[in-house]
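User: structure tokens for this one?
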Amino acid sequence: MNTAILKKASFKPLALLAVLPLALTGCVSTANENSDANGEVSLVKSGVLSVCTNTPYKPFEYEENGTVVGLDADIANAIASDLGVKAQLTSISFEGLDSGTGLSTGQCDIALAGIGVTDERKSKMEFTTVYFDDNLAILVPKGSSITSAADLKGVAVGAQQATSGETYAKENGAEVIQYEDTSLMFSALKTGQVKAVAANLSVISEALTNDPDSFKIAYQDSENTEQIAAAVSSNNKALLAKANATIDKLKKNGELDKMKAKWVGTTSSASASASSSAS
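Assistant:
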């Protein structure tokens, strides 16, 4: 798991009159509150679905020619399309996503950033339907003697801060080195600054694809599957319902599987394990 930040809009009575026709004819409006009594979706910025993300975090989101692309970007664009607006993706710190402040302070309407669903995060935000299941794994240089989570004890392990990979490494006694940028994390592994990386399999698979001669998967923990979902603020029930409807539609019509195949190379983390592992 790159940053302009959208300021929450405030509107005077005349501005409200300007958007009244849209509120009467559609289901999207702009207001200071996230959802109104009629169940309409209210957006931070008129005509735009403001999306908080965190780049680079391949294959979920990264910048290409000045545009944020990836699995999360495709899902965000699909949700925006169903709302009849455009998606605008803005990268913020992962701490801002993890704490829910990006949502609660009005920086964005929805967060898509490879966010794992946890009980702690549920207390700060509302999660959509899960759109990706991702196993945790350990990446090491070829020739490493690390073969299990137990081997991480006392070892310098790279992990993206505020992620399940960081928690997993700490729980197994590793000396965790935090990285905000995944590319720097994998570079540190290649140059020997850390002896292993703990992260989601989808993220680790990206490093293997880019540099198959340098790395191998030492261990994959199938019992620690992380569920990835989008998040909205707790008072944004209307947007939650609309986002869920889009994700459910993408699942039923096969488009979500196509997106996963395009960006992750597979439709699930489990099926990626055999092709991603190296000895």
